[in-house]
Amino acid sequence: MSKDNSILEELTSKEYEHGWSVNFEADEAPIGLNEDIIRWISTKKEEPQWLLEWRLKAFRTWLTMTEPEWANVTYPKIDLQALRYYSAPKQVKKAKNLDEVDPELIAIYERLGISLNEQKRLQGIAVDAVLDSVSVATTFRGTLSKLGIIFCSFSEAVKEHPELVKKYLGSVVPMTDNYYAALNSAVFSDGSFCYIPKGVRCPMELSTYFRINAANTGQFERTLIVADEESYVSYLEGCTAPSRDENQLHAAVVEIHAASHAEVKYSTVQNWFPGDKDGKGGIYNFVTKRGICAGDYSKISWTQVETGSAVTWKYPSCILKGDHSIGEFYSVAVTNNYQQADTGTKMIHIGKNTKSRIVSKGISAGKSQNSYRGQVQVMKRADNARNFSQCDSLLMGDRCGAHTFPYIDINNSSAKVEHEATTSKIGEDQIFYCNQRGIATEDAVALIVNGYAKEVLNQLPMEFAVEAQKLLALTLEGSVG
Amino acid sequence: MLSIKNLHASIEGNEILRGINLEVKAGEVHAIMGPNGSGKSTLASVLAGREEYEVTEGEVTFKGKDLLDLAPEDRAREGVFLAFQYPVEIPGVSSTNFLRTAVNQVREYRGLESLDAVKFLTLMKEKMKLVEIDQKLLSRSLNEGFSGGEKKRNEIFQMAMLEPTLSILDETDSGLDIDALRIVSNGVNQLKSGKNATIVVTHYQRLLDYIVPDFVHVLYKGRIVKSGTKELALELEEKGYDWIKDEIDSAATV
Ligand SMILES: Nc1ncnc2c1ncn2[C@@H]1O[C@H](COP(=O)(O)OP(=O)(O)O)[C@@H](O)[C@H]1O
Ligand SMILES: [Mg+2]
């Protein structure tokens, strides 16, 4: 036993790999939150009047709202007046190409293993990199624009495609949807925008990497993806943050619009700083993600691998409005040490013959708490709606917790809704079996956990799947002893 | 190769092994027989390093090393292989993937370079023939939904892949029909050499017609109470265990 404890000690004290931060001159808003700050941000970003009005309206509504407390997480109240709502690297002008980007910034992304130049180009992934509040580089623009695909930072979209932004911004997640979404609507600084025109299959993965660098800064990015009729796109999101003693807030909004016969795959590998092994520091990840299958035969598929953050509050959802539309949610959420995750999905069946599928794999270790919260709602006119939900929990050790909160609300008798749930412990027997074949305990755990999460990992694009597998193993190192 | 001296082991305070002595040399096949609950699986588990069992007395050396001092994975890498009586299932992990991890970790320990995908598959193909195992079975999740016979066959296949010096087969014959028994035994026999040794745990004589032992030991109440040659197994087959039990139990009450 003492041998195991020392291994456990050694490995759980392993530091978060992306925990460094870089000092560079930043252009910052004063600390605090009020209408003046919002005007400051909007001016800074040279926004049109309508967007400022939109922000202010969101802010005024937000003032009347209260922080949600129904999630199965506990954390000290965040002092939203103590945060800074805008921080940009001094070089504010968005670079037209990578040669113009501050080498310091490129270096940050290189350190994250995200090469913004040649390498990614060869791999055929277009990247939009967001540092703190602004987008610093978007790659691969030319190739995409030949196909009529727009992939750029949110701020650029506001300037160059105002009609699209105006039409879709807030159309899936209304500005007043919830406390954090309203806050985001008021203060969001940047994010990614993507439009796939009718009939176009995007030939490469589109990807955004988010990183919080500056201290005491909230990150409130906004992503908007619009897939026009018969189009297809696969979109990837990755994120990291420096290790800091204080908690940092991340409250993003992602909106997806899929027109008829369009398909959008949205994959996330979330690796925000989870706090140290004693639960100090870490990101509060309060995110609203929602897609609407607006047209018939459209499809939206969410895949997420959640390994980071101190507290996660996140429910990527699908509104299945078009007839025959399909919503999918594949999730692996891992919590270790003192992490808390309350995550799941909502599938709202409105159209006829709509289908949804939920596969959630929770893994809890250490003293962490992991909750699945899912809602399946079938509206009156949604004839023949189908849902299948599979919610599995895997426990490592006996100091962690796994919880499942399925809500089912059916208003049409032709609906078929199936829910399966299992809870298992990672078996001593399984580990011993691996040991007996010469496999070390750490590798045995990685093998077993990746096997358990396979159905979800299989949904990820190749390069991401490998990264995710490594991340799972890394997050759980030392959690069995 | 293996030397067990006065081995005592207990679980949750109950002493299960009460002074086992056994010498196994390279090239030998030892059969361990005995009624249910006599401690056969416990002995196998203790040798493999299962942590639930506490060794309270005695020593075990394997190729000159103190076996009890090694972590379970290092025992395996040194060449101890246990074919489990009840192999576990690992959902989502294919036998192929599992074995590739195992083989390469064992090779690394032995100072050999790791096998790339092509070399590994070639090795697999070759060993698959030994136990007539199907490729399809190996791409499925490890042991998940395998029949009893398939599980046992897969154990011997793994043994073939890992090339151990000491193999312990714990009731590998139970649950096998006569054809499967023949195939599995065939595999084991082909893997036998002058350099490795096998301990066959069983309580049926039947298996020993296929895997012929050099020595037969009877385990009862945590001790080896009788040792002999193949003839002992035949005698047990004929008379059952009762005469041995009587002998031991009456000796104990005197
Ligand atoms: N976890 C345990 N706690 C208490 N007794 C156990 C435990 N596991 C096994 N035993 C006991 O140890 C004895 C030997 O078991 P085992 O080695 O499996 O026997 P065999 O393989 O010879 O049938 C049995 O009496 C069994 O009940
Ligand atoms: Mg047994």
UniProtKB/TrEMBL annotation, chain A:
Q: Tell me the ranges covered by the SUF system FeS cluster assembly SufBD N-terminal domain, including all copies.
A: 147-202
Q: Which domain of life is it from?
A: Bacteria
| Chain ranges of the SUF system FeS cluster assembly SufBD core domain | 210-451
InterPro entries named among the record's database cross-references: Fe-S_cluster_assembly_SufBD, SUF_FeS_clus_asmbl_SufB, SUF_FeS_clus_asmbl_SufBD_core, SUF_FeS_clus_asmbl_SufBD_sf, SufBD_N
Per the similarity annotation, which family is this? Belongs to the iron-sulfur cluster assembly SufBD family.
Q: What is this protein called in UniProt? A: Fe-S cluster assembly protein SufB
Q: Which organism is it from?
A: Algoriphagus aestuariicola
From TrEMBL, chain B:
- Organism annotation: Algoriphagus aestuariicola
Q: Which PANTHER family match?
A: ABC TRANSPORTER I FAMILY MEMBER 6, CHLOROPLASTIC (PTHR43204:SF1)
Q: What positions does the domain ABC transporter occupy?
A: 2-246
List the Pfam families: ABC_tran
Q: Protein name, please?
A: Fe-S cluster assembly ATPase SufC
The alphabetized UniProt keywords are: ATP-binding, Nucleotide-binding
| PROSITE patterns assigned | ABC_TRANSPORTER_2
* Transmembrane regions: none
Name the NCBIfam families on file: PRK09580.1 (NF007134), sufC (TIGR01978)
Family recorded in the similarity comment:
Belongs to the ABC transporter superfamily. Ycf16 family.
Task: Check the record and name the SMART domains matching this protein.
Answer: AAA
**InterPro entries linked:** AAA+_ATPase (IPR003593), ABC_transporter-like_ATP-bd (IPR003439), FeS-cluster_ATPase_SufC (IPR010230), P-loop_NTPase (IPR027417)
